[in-house]
Write the structure tokens for this entry.
Amino acid sequence: GAALATIISQALVTIIFIYFLFFQKQSYIIFNFKSFNYDSIIIQKIFRLGLPASLSMIIMSMGLMLFNGILGSTKAVAAYQTAGRIEHFFFLPIISIATALVTLVGMFYGANRMDLVNKIVKYGISRGICIALSFSLFFFFFADNFIPMFINDIQIIELTVLYFKIMAFAYPFITIGMTSSRVMQGLGHANPMFILTLFRVIIISASLAWYFVIILEKPVHYAWVGSLISCILTSLISILWLQKIIRRSLKST
């Protein structure tokens, strides 16, 4: 049922996009198949920017499987999965901001307006951090109240609440890392997104979770402490990397 609903919803959205793009023509770009010419250079650029982002999503899926294996018990996995679903309320606006930054930064960068690139980056990251802090406060102080609305099992509720108590501190750093990666993608540098995702999910987060839970035999919530540490470290790396790329771009313009 869930799979069928997903297919139907995706199909409906695709039909709506096709209607507005090709029939209603309510977009900045008017598509005309007669004007299309094959250009291998453009195709290469698309793959160079898109492939690292696709690989990043694969790494996220691999990290999820690793975490499920490390957590071990069904209750811990259930708590982790439940928290991940609820976290979508936080990720949706942050992903929207980060995705919009790719287009805006690419547009201003292509026009050699690095002044506007700096302005839009500061605006996007600052607003994203404000949203993240709001969610952090809400999840930290009210997780005990709303988690029982989704789960009946006491142990799963306790683990899910503990997850939010820990990860609430990570949301501002997640925002910085996500938006910085997308800005670098807009500037034509897609590899940082792949490298940072690999570093955060596999090298730091999964490794620390395995070390804490399996080697040191700590409680399962130490796996989320590992995630918090990885988010902090990669956000610092991402913002420094972004600043370096922007400085280099300013010199070249």
Q: What stands out?
A: The two ends are 53 Å apart (CA to CA). The chain has two domains: 1-34, 51-252.
